[in-house]
Amino acid sequence: GEKxxxxxxxxxCSNAPIENAEIYxxxxxxxxxxxxxxxxxxxxxxxxxxxxTMRKPGFLRCRVWVTVDGRKYEECATAGFxxxxxxxxxxxxxxxxxxxxxxxxxxxxxxxxxxxxxxPEKCTPTVNVYSASFQSYKKGSRIYGTMCVPVNHDGKCPxxxxxxxxxxxxxxxxxxxxxxxxxxxxxxxxxxxxxxxPESIYASLKExxxxxYQFSGIDDKNNYIYKRIFLGCARAVDFLASLDFVDGExxxxxxxxxxxxxxxxxxxxxxxxxxxxxxxxxxxxxxGYQVGRAGGWPSMFPTPEDHPEINxxxxxxxxxxxxxxxxxxxxxxxxxxxFGFNDNTCPPTSxxxxxxxxxxxxxxxxNPASYHWRYKEIHMEAIAWMKSQCE
Length: 391
Fold this sequence. Notes:
15 strands; globular
């Protein structure tokens, strides 16, 4: 019911107002159709939008575009209303727990066949780097990653599994965290080595065979691509715990976006995860658009015309087995969570729907100004928090 003020200023690089700036604006609930939109001339380069509010928990966003000297600029600001009261729309299937327990049990029958190979050219005086892989999901299918191990570790080290955001790229390893005493294992999810050369190989895969992989098999809960991915992340914990230089009592998982989703999923699936750091998790409350509210990446059916090639009813049923909300309900370890109000990839409404159902101890850091990224300071705060969980 409160009415926020959205102040707009169009200025040059010297912070002086640009007179008669022509703007286009939209005011809307998170990722939904605009409540108000239009063009406006700002005589002195400034204006203020007032009079808009929300009568339910959620986010109200003001977006503004302006073209100056032929270049188009965009900015936005978002107000949150009782965001801790946002409730998910996703429903947990009756056989959710049984489905995933059977998947884990079946995966445990597949030999892990781990491989760990030193990569001398990537090592530093303080960190040894390994190319690592193990078998998962079915015989011949492997998960690859880059492992960093402190050179001067004394006995066993706490371990940090880093799970990836969406896309396809190399995994160079987390050196800074290894220098702080963690064994870090940055995994890929596509069954290809993470240290291939040239780097352009990954871009070619992203635009080729892995294009829109997030929809692969979405009409069948047993063949959806994220089943292999989720199980691979869980098995990565088994791999870490099997190493004689890893302290099995202190294994954490961290990631952002798709990686934020995978972090929460891994924490829910594997009891040996002792702490989790998840940033703006994707795959959260994905059915939201079906009930007039923003849903999480990969933006399932925001309009009736979206993805006509996919059977909507089947896909949404399958997604209920993979929605992060249903895993968040089952997280038992402490967590550090972060998201931005202006996120234009993983709508904050969907993120809050997942974080609000986490019953385990948690630290939630909100960034009203940030988009689909995190500040370096927040990342370091998360690392320090995870380090404290190992004491």
